[in-house]
Design a protein that fits this description.
The complex is a heterodimer of chains A (about 150) and B (about 350). Chain A has about 150 residues and is α+β, with helices and mostly antiparallel strands. Chain A has three helices and seven strands, in the order αββαββββαβ. Helix content of chain A is about 30%, strand content about 20%. Chain A is elongated, with a radius of gyration of 21 Å. Chains A and B meet through helix 1 and helix 2 of A and helix 9 and helix 10 of B.
Chain lengths: ~150, ~350
């Protein structure tokens, strides 16, 4: 191989390597897509899981968060869901979950909604032909009492 | 038809490619017919037509290459059209299990995607044969170059017709009369991409990826070095086979390991998502495709361009193609490895 070919080739490899470093660095802005299915996260249905190392993982719905936890095998430090009526974040343990006819994620087929207030949960349940989930059906029940 | 800037651009390019491809086939066939009929001293009008053929073919080759990334930009622009679709993979699933013309969309898109790759490869093969022919005194490869041009023209016209049909077919799914709940039309999970290797351990995929690439790079170095001193045409069949095995290993690695790591989506095995979310990593994919094709083009040169007049420079031309493939492989591996490590 000629010296010129070597230099051109090495320049090409260097440029590719530089781009590989620069790309993720330029994309370091906060990601707002679900970590399970890459769907856009609607603020009213956002679920945040704090993993054992204190890192946040965001999901577009309760089912995505449950599937991700199951597949990753991670023991979460805390799980937060969003109160659909106020848009504020609440602990999954204190939330009231309603399964209704209104879909939160058409891809996964999630229809679970979280509420802080029992009256709001009742109202949604009546309005959207749903039912409040009992202890046996509650999402994240496998991780209950582990929230710290 | 979904109307947006990309679909208008793609439709225009597709129409232009279709016209050029048909022209290339027609001119190519007439050139071959007249070459057989006329004596060598009467060939001037045929030669003039050949120049026109190669000029049009050159333009067609450039447009063929451009149409490949444009297809994915078009599909990306379709993503917001359906509520359950999150990425290009979802767009490719539109029409699955549907009645009516939309039912043809997924298969049509698969065919167009395969044809695009075949077309770019054939276009490259045409280019290397054309360049070899240009370096000779009496152009002994003209017949082969014209036949390759006709093959490129036929492939391009089929590809353009398929793409035009994909653009024109209404992308409105119709559930069969048994109901949407029991057919794929109602199954929204089809929009989620799945991996290739299933539950196979990632470390095995790492071994396969780096092993296969190391083998090809070693093969390239040996072929280049062994044939550098004396100038014969190198034997390329084993290298071509290695490149094919490497293509399978690398594709699996990119889908199952690299894309989820780069996208920060451990269960989302989708190369298509790199288009909007990590566009620079597509350079690694493009470099890998180029490297694999370059080995194929070297084989095409060795097998298709060999004659007495090309002997003096054919080895050098093949070696230059292999050197380009070597650095493209190294660049691709470097980029993928760094992106996976820093992501």
């Amino acid at each position: 191989m000629s010296k010129r070919a070597w230099i051109s080739g090495l320049l090409f490899v260097t440029a590719m390597s530089a781009l590989a470093v620069a790309g993720p660095w330029l994309r370091r802005v906060e990601r707002r897509t679900c970590e399970y299915d890459a769907a856009r996260i609607e603020p009213a249905n956002r679920v945040r899981v704090v993993d054992c190392c204190g890192r946040d993982h965001e999901f577009c719905c309760v089912t995505c968060a449950e599937l991700w936890l199951k597949r990753s095998g991670i023991e979460p430090q805390a799980i937060h869901v969003t109160d659909e009526s106020s848009g504020t974040e609440i602990s999954a343990e204190s939330a009231i979950f309603v399964r209704s006819m209104v879909s939160t994620n058409p891809v996964i087929g999630d229809r679970i909604h979280a509420f802080r207030d029992a009256n709001e949960a009742e109202k949604h349940s009546r309005f959207a032909r749903g039912q409040i989930l009992g202890e046996a059906e509650r999402p994240f029940r496998a991780y209950a009492n582990r929230d710290r | 038809m979904i109307l947006n800037a990309y679909s208008v651009l793609d439709a225009s390019l597709t129409l232009l490619r279709l016209l050029l491809a048909l022209a290339v086939v027609a001119i190519g066939l007439s050139v071959m017919k007249q070459r057989r009929r006329l004596a060598s001293d009467e060939l001037t009008p045929v030669e003039n037509r050949q120049y026109l053929l190669f000029l049009v073919a050159g333009l067609l080759v450039v447009l063929n290459v451009l149409s490949w990334p444009l297809l994915y930009l078009l599909l990306e622009s379709y993503v917001p059209e359906w509520p359950g679709v999150m990425c290009i993979y979802g767009v490719t699933q539109i029409g699955v299990g549907s009645d009516g013309p939309a039912g043809y969309l997924p298969r049509l898109l698969q065919i167009v995607q395969i044809l695009k790759a075949a077309l770019v490869f054939a276009s490259g093969a045409w280019a290397v044969l054309y360049l070899a022919n240009r370096r000779t005194r009496s152009a002994p490869l003209t017949g082969r170059v014209v036949w390759t041009t006709i093959i490129v023209g036929v492939l391009a016209s089929v590809d353009a017709a398929g793409e035009a049909a994909y653009l024109a077919i209404p992308k409105k799914e119709e559930a069969p009369s048994v109901g949407c709940c029991v057919t794929p039309v109602g199954d929204q999970s089809r929009f989620l991409p799945h991996g290739i290797a299933g539950e196979l351990n990632n470390s095995w995929l790492h071994v396969a990826y780096y092993g296969a690439n190391a083998a090809v790079i070693l093969g390239l170095l040996v072929t280049i070095r062994m044939n550098a001193a004396h100038k014969p045409v190198p034997r390329l069949a084993p290298l071509g086979l290695l490149a094919l095995v490497n293509a399978a290993a690398t594709t699996t690695f990119l889908i199952d390991v690299a894309a989820p790591a780069i996208l920060h989506l451990p269960y989302h095995h989708c190369l298509y998502d790199l288009v909007p979310r990590a566009p620079e990593s597509l350079l690694a994919v493009a470099a890998f495709v180029f490297a694999t094709f370059a080995i194929g083009w070297a084989c095409a040169t060795a097998w298709g361009a060999r004659c007495a007049e090309t002997e003096p420079f054919l080895g050098e031309q093949i070696r230059m193609t292999l050197v380009a493939a070597l650095f493209a492989y190294v660049g691709s591996i470097a980029m993928v490895s760094i992106e996976v490590a820093v992501s």
